[in-house]
Design a protein that fits this description.
The complex is a heterodimer of chains A (about 475) and B (about 450). Chain A has 9 helices and 28 strands. With about 475 residues, chain A is α+β, with helices and mostly antiparallel strands. In chain A, the strands form 6 sheets. In chain A, strands 16, 17, 18, 22, 23, 26 and 27 form a 7-stranded antiparallel β-sheet that branches. In chain A, strands 19, 20, 21, 24, 25 and 28 form a 6-stranded mixed β-sheet that branches. In chain A, strands 3-2-5-8-7 form a 5-stranded antiparallel β-sheet, with no helix packed on it. In chain A, strand 7 and strand 8 (about 90-95) form a beta hairpin. Chain B contains 13 helices and 13 strands. Chain B has helices at about 1-15, 20-45, 50-70, 85-95, 105-120, 140-150, 175-180, 220-230, 235-245, 340-350, 360-380, 385-410, 420-445; strands at about 80-85, 125, 160-165, 185-190, 195, 200-205, 210, 215-220, 255-260, 265-270, 315-320, 330, 335-340. In chain B, strand 7 and strand 8 form a beta hairpin. The two termini of chain B are about 40 Å apart. The chains are: A alpha+beta (about 475), B alpha/beta (about 450). Chains A and B meet through helix 1, strand 1 and strand 6 of A and helix 3 and helix 12 of B.
């Protein structure tokens, strides 16, 4: 009995502790801050309407009516969000409450307080990459369908979209007015099975550029056939849309180097606005897959940028809070961003990446891999870094050589063939200093060009000999 | 009088643990020892990452609680006037979708507001914008702001420009550097805030940052600069700066007397990098959508239509943009919040004297000792598992509420006294649980065991 009484006492105690504000009076939500001469306020109080003359800085409550015979628009208000005064006619304004209602019961509050409610995972905006990039579902590395209309989002309004061939020859250019954000690739001169450069311009300035491909004739026919078969099925229109969206994602996942139709899957889902309740979960899953789909980075098709010349493609793997993606080296990084370089060359030989720190050099590649020999099209990963809270530029020097380098051979001996991204000894630093000096004096410097989420550097000639290098500067 | 004496002697008898039966006495001493041990361990762990996380969650609960109260009671922003350009711009967009291009480069709007602040005789204006780059698409807007800055003749209004210090220890350049250097009323400050390593939640303001390669200088943060300038304490900050650079004398906390609405207060500047206790922001100015119960928050919407210069008189004005597309929305204990509102809350914390203070070590020790001994006595009179459990829960919640309502609200102190009671409660509950289980076993024919010294039902 004693115990039961005590339990009840605890519940009452917690109940009262959790609802300390329930009994508080209604709070003021707006204030008159000017132009209130000859104005009156009508308020419903204790079951009746009462009139008050309006005063400067007078607090107002939801439902208050303010009357001013000449012109209510002359009265100036300040108000809390969601409580904008609604002007009814020329002489009356009413303080309306549009605040969202909190429907939590006391038990939900109690359970929340005690941590008994399963918390929803932290939501990350689906279009977060929109903030990092430009499109809701980025078009970098996407494969367009020659006969299929593509709809662009609002970002393209008043901007110029240009398609160029890889040698720079312009194929198509259009400045969007806002109500014409659609194109059919086949009708604007884009040819099947070809790669193009897509540029988005603000006036004459290029805001963004990346590669984009048009799917080959046979592949497009396979996709169209599959979509037609789905159309012929005896299922609801919404089911057809979901099935098509799922198919487009499936085929993109199966052949990631050849096909990327996530943009089309998103376009179908986005336009359809699925309403059937039983399909909502699937719709959300498919939409989430569109947002999670990584479109950046380096693909086999990107080697076309090197134009059969010796060169290297570099992208930065960025981790910010809980999201990670590939970004270009000219990306505006923030403090505490974590990153590493991912790069692939079309040459075999020797490669190292030096990090020019303020006081000393360190070796960003090879990191944990044994040796610095790289092979054709091999994917390489540098050490991981994290920006500190101070803004500035960090330089990374990518060095390639067709022969082993004396400094690196000595460095290897000093390391005892153990490579790691840790601290270097004074002797190792000296070797890196000497190497960098030699590279800058005798090596051939290449320019780094940015294309979408990657940079690329290529030699001027068809062959490579001796030392070549290029610099990547990351800024936060 | 006699009755009082009787009660007193009865009380003393209850407290005389030498009169306890042997088992109870041992348990009593063990409880105190365990309580003290756990409290010492916990204090030792306070400076670790785990301890910091625990302290943060305790403070967060208090801060959320007072934020809710502040939202409901319409906390008075006092001398602060918050001008959120994002809100104005959004309303304008609603009217005309095509005007979207105005949205992220509102330097003409800033110019207009700044002009009003000069005319209205504002005390301090904090521009929460990094003017590191020219306006990409409308250079005439930069010119308009430059003109307002250059032609200003107001001798009273101080303007603070946020800057960053680069890895090269130099201040990043601003496009208005020339105007800032020409007017002694314009100054630079760092806009840096501290976020916790584990969850990236902003909980603290930063005091200062050193810059300059050889010739070291100090750059104060926005909250410190705003409060000091508002109180005419530029000289004091200069003197402190000299002391800090000379490094002759080690100063842990510097106390700067300030005046807020006629009340004398002290601005405490912790100068050690690790002293975050006093730098905790108490979020009492609540923008919309932070708190579910009061989605409207307590910050008034001030639009360009309802604003007149007289509203600026003697105010600390913060001009910023809360729109998420600006990229200045950060996580705080009470929800996501734009940088301008975090700065506003930091300044509000300083102006109102809400800076949390750590209790002196001996106060903390005495409180803990008192609680532990009290709890050890109390648990001697609880006889069942459920009673032990309830006393522990009531004790933790009760002391938690006392901690909030008495200590934190009034003195900004969070005394850490729940560890002791939790420790003793844990031992008692485990003992009682053992008894309950052995009793059950006994019923089913197991060997009979009883817990020494405790009377069980």
């Amino acid at each position: 009995m004693k115990t039961r009484t005590a339990i009840i006492a605890v519940m009452v105690f917690l109940f009262s502790a959790l609802t300390p504000y329930q009994a508080m009076a209604e709070k003021a939500v707006a204030w008159i801050v000017g132009g209130c001469d000859g104005c009156k306020v009508t308020r419903f109080e204790n079951g009746e309407f009462k009139e008050y003359p309006a005063k400067q800085d007078m607090p107002l409550f939801p439902g208050d009516r303010i009357d001013k015979k000449d012109n209510i628009k002359n009265v100036r208000f300040e108000y809390l969000p969601y409580f904008e005064p609604k002007i009814k006619d020329g002489s009356t304004a009413i303080i309306l409450n549009n605040a969202p209602v909190n429907k939590d019961s006391i038990f939900t509050r109690l359970a929340n307080f005690l941590g008994l409610v399963k918390s929803r995972p932290r939501e990350i905006k689906g279009t977060s990459r929109g903030a990092w990039g430009h499109d809701a579902v980025p078009l970098e590395n996407a494969t367009l369908l020659s006969g299929c209309k593509i709809t662009f989002d609002d970002y393209y309004k008043r901007k110029t979209l240009v398609f160029k061939e890889l040698d720079g020859k312009e194929v198509f250019s259009k400045t969007f007015a806002g109500n014409d954000l659609e194109l059919v690739p086949g009708k604007i001169g884009l040819q099947q099975e070809k790669m193009y450069i897509r540029e988005i311009k603000i006036g004459a300035t290029i805001d963004f550029r990346s590669t984009i491909r048009v799917l080959g004739k046979e592949d497009e026919a396979i996709v169209n056939n599959a979509l037609t078969k789905i159309d012929a099925k005896k299922i609801t229109t919404e089911e057809k849309i979901l099935e098509k969206a799922a198919y487009l994602q499936f085929i993109s996942d199966c052949y990631p180097d050849q096909v990327d139709l996530y943009w089309f899957s998103f376009q179908l889902l986005d336009k359809a606005e699925i309403k059937e309740e039983r399909l909502l979960d699937l719709n959300e899953i498919l939409l989430a897959r569109c947002f999670d789909h990584k479109t950046g980075g380096i693909t086999a098709a990107d080697f076309a940028l090197l134009d059969n010349r010796p060169g290297c493609l570099v992208t930065v793997h960025l981790k910010r809070e809980n999201e990670s993606t590939f970004v270009a080296p000219d990306f505006p990084f923030k403090s505490y961003d974590e990153f590493y370089f991912y790069f692939q060359g079309n040459i075999g030989g020797y490669c190292m990446v030096l990090h020019e720190n303020f006081d000393a050099l360190d070796l960003a590649f090879p990191g944990n891999e044994p040796g610095y020999h790289v092979t054709h099209s091999q994917g390489n990963r540098s050490c991981s870094y994290r920006f500190d809270d101070k803004p500035g530029i960090e330089n990374y020097i990518f060095i390639f050589s067709d022969k082993p380098l004396e400094e690196m051979e000595q460095y290897t001996k000093l390391s005892g063939n153990k490579w790691n991204c840790g601290k270097l000894s004074a002797e190792q630093r000296k070797l890196l200093d000497a190497l960098l000096k030699r590279v800058k004096e005798k090596g051939q410097k290449l320019d780094l060009e940015i294309m979408g989420s990657k940079g690329f550097a290529r030699a001027p000639g068809k062959t490579l000999s001796g030392l070549v290098w290029f610099q990547v500067a990351l800024e936060n | 009088m006699d009755a009082l004496k009787k009660v007193f002697s009865k009380g003393l008898k209850i407290l005389d643990f030498s009169k306890f039966e042997k088992g109870k006495r041992i348990q009593f001493i063990l409880n105190i020892a365990a309580g003290l041990f756990i409290v010492f361990i916990m204090h030792g762990l306070e400076s670790t990452r785990w301890g910091e996380g625990l302290l943060n969650s305790a403070f967060d609960r208090f801060i959320i609680s007072e934020a809710k109260e502040a939202a409901i009671t319409n906390e008075d922003p006092g001398e602060l006037l918050l001008l959120d350009i994002g809100y104005n711009e959004k309303n304008e967009i609603k009217k005309d979708e095509d005007e979207k291009t105005n949205f992220l480069s509102p330097r003409d709007t800033i110019a207009a507001l700044l002009k009003m602040a000069f005319t209205g005789d504002a005390s301090v204006v904090v521009l929460d914008y990094a003017f590191e780059e020219n306006d990409c698409c409308h250079p005439e807007r930069d010119d308009r702001l430059r003109k307002v800055l250059a032609e200003n003749t107001n001798q009273r209004t101080k303007v603070i420009f946020p800057v960053r210090v680069g890895k090269d220890e130099k201040i990043q350049k601003l496009i208005f550097d020339k105007e800032i250097d020409q007017n002694p009323n314009y100054s630079r400050a760092i806009a840096t805030l501290y976020a916790s390593q584990d969850d990236a939640v902003v909980r603290h303001w930063k005091v200062f940052q050193e810059y300059g390669d050889k010739d070291k200088k100090i750059l104060w943060s926005i909250p410190v600069s705003a409060v000091a300038l508002r109180n005419g304490k530029e000289k004091d900050l200069k003197n402190l700066e000299a002391l800090m650079i000379q490094r002759d004398k080690k100063i842990d906390v510097y106390s700067l007397p300030i005046d807020t609405a006629g009340e004398k207060k002290k601005l405490l500047l912790p100068l050690r990098e690790t002293d975050l206790y006093r730098q905790r922001i108490r979020f009492r100015l609540i923008p919309k959508d932070c708190i579910t119960d009061s989605a409207e928050g307590n910050i008034r919407v001030i639009t360009t239509e309802n604003l007149t210069s007289d509203r600026f008189k003697d105010k600390i004005v913060i001009i910023g943009n809360s729109d998420s597309e600006v990229g200045d929305v950060l996580s705080t204990p009470i929800g996501d919040m734009a940088g301008m509102y975090i700065h506003a809350n930091a300044i509000h914390t300083l102006l109102k004297g809400y800076q949390p203070k750590p209790p002196p070590w001996w106060v903390s020790f005495l409180i803990n000792l008192f609680i532990i001994i009290g709890a050890a006595y109390l648990f001697q009179y609880t006889e069942t598992f459920w009673m032990d459990f309830l006393v522990m829960i009531i004790g933790i919640f009760g002391f938690g509420l006392i901690g909030y309502y008495v200590f934190f609200k009034n003195f900004g102190i969070v005394p850490n006294f729940v560890f002791g009671i939790a420790a003793i409660g844990y031992i008692e509950i485990m003992n009682s649980l053992k008894d309950v289980l052995t009793k059950n076993k006994q019923h089913s024919g197991s060997i009979k065991t009883t817990h020494a010294g405790k009377k069980r039902r």
